[in-house]
Amino acid sequence: MERLLQGTKLKQWYLFLLFAMVQVVAFAQDGGETSTKTVTTTSKTEVMIQPWMWVVGGAVLLIILIALLRGGSSTTSTSEKVIVTKSDD
After folding, report:
1. C-alpha closest to that of 14 among 26, 22, 3, 2
2. CA of 85: how far to CAs of 7, 34, 82, 88, in Å?
3. Counting Cβ atoms within 10 Å, is residue 18 exposed (0-12), middle (13-18) or buried (19+)?
4. Contact call for residues 47 and 53 (beta carbons, < 8 A)
5. Which positions ≥6 away from 53 have C-beta within 8 Å?
6. DSSP letters of the chain?
7. Confidence at residue 60, expressed as pLDDT on a 0 to 100 scale
8. What is the value of pTM for the model shown?
């Protein structure tokens, strides 16, 4: 009977160590309660989401398109009036 109790105590000791290790791992992943470090970074995707960037980009694109389309037809076409008169000879 004493051997059975020693085996049970050994199992309890292993179980205690197992739970202690699980808590250590869980606490390490959480970063602890004292971790209050805040990191603020601006990534490229955050900049592209801002609406004013889309408005400015659209305006620049529109100005470039207008300049290209008007630049091709910058030569003024002159039309000459030709008056034809029929004479009775």
Report:
1. 22
2. 129, 101, 10, 10
3. exposed
4. yes
5. 47
6. -HHHHHHHHHHHHHHHHHHHHHHHHHHHHHT-TT---------HHHHHHSHHHHHHHHHHHHHHHHHHHHHHT-SPPP-----------
7. 95
8. 0.32
How far, in Å, CA of 43 to CA of 55, rounded? Answer: 19
Token match 């470039």: residue? 64
Query: What does the pLDDT look like over 47-77, one tens digit per residue?
Result: 667 788 889 999 999 999 988 888 765 556 6
> What is the predicted pLDDT for the residue at 16?
84
Scored b (16 or more CB within 10 A) or e, 37-65 reads eeeeeeeeeeeeeeeeeeeeeeeeeeeee
Q: Any residues with CB less than 8 A from the CB of 23 and at least 6 apart, and which?
A: none
